[in-house]
Every structure is written in C-alpha cells, then in structure tokens.
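Q: I'm building a small set of examples for a reading group on sequence design. Run inverse folding on the following structure and report the sequence directly after it, with nothing in between.
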C-alpha cells in the first residue's frame, strides 16, 4: 500500500464525525440548497454545532455555500 492508496486526510477527518456525516448525507439527499435551520430541525441539534460542522465540510470541499 502506498500513500496514494490512502484517503485524503482532510476528507477522512471531514466525514469521520457521525453528526458531520449525517449533515453531509442530508445535503446530498436533497435537490435544493439546505438551510442551517432545516438541518437543525431535522437533526434536533444546536444551530452552532451545525454551522461548525458545515465549516469543516466546506474546508474539505464537500459542500459549498449558496
């Protein structure tokens, strides 16, 4: 196994947190831009937590702000 066979560490860290993965899955499952409020309602968690996780997903290039 070479380093090319390993996942990108930024991407791996971005999806390693279960709540972050849930957020990504919800975003990918929709056909429209998803708001923080929608994610907060769906997941039943604090909007600041959602915002922090979205920031990590943006840094990894997995989501974009509309």
């Amino acid at each position: 196994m070479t380093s090319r066979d390993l996942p990108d560490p930024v991407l791996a860290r971005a999806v390693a947190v279960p709540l972050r993965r849930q957020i990504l899955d919800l975003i990918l499952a929709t056909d429209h831009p998803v708001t923080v409020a929608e994610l907060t309602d769906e997941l039943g968690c604090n909007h600041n937590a959602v915002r922090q996780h979205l920031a990590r997903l943006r840094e990894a290039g997995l989501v974009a702000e509309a």
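Helices lie at 9-16, 18-28, 36-43, 47-59.
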